[in-house]
Amino acid sequence: MPASYLTLTRKLGKALMSSARKLRRAKQKILQKELKKNLKQAERAMDSLPKKCDECDAPFDRTKKEELDKWRIAVYDDGRIHLVCDGCTPESVKNESR
Ligand SMILES: [Zn+2]
Fold it and tell me: Which of 21, 37, 60, 88 would suit a FRET pair with 69, their CA atoms being 20 to 30 Å apart?
């Protein structure tokens, strides 16, 4: 019967529409959660940064912007992270990022 078929698709359409809306809302929630998580991770990463150069023990002053620009984070394949000062950064690395 065409009539019931139409009704059925309408009902289906409505259900699909509302579930799509729910899905969108759920996605937004997930996105916001991810964003918060990433921010926290970034903060934690900053907090866990060493306070000095891992190579020569030069103190690292996080509050100086020019130091932030010069110092580098060396990430090793096994996940270790080393903070290195300007003096300990190989010239080849410095030239690369320029
Ligand atoms: Zn150093």
Answer: 37
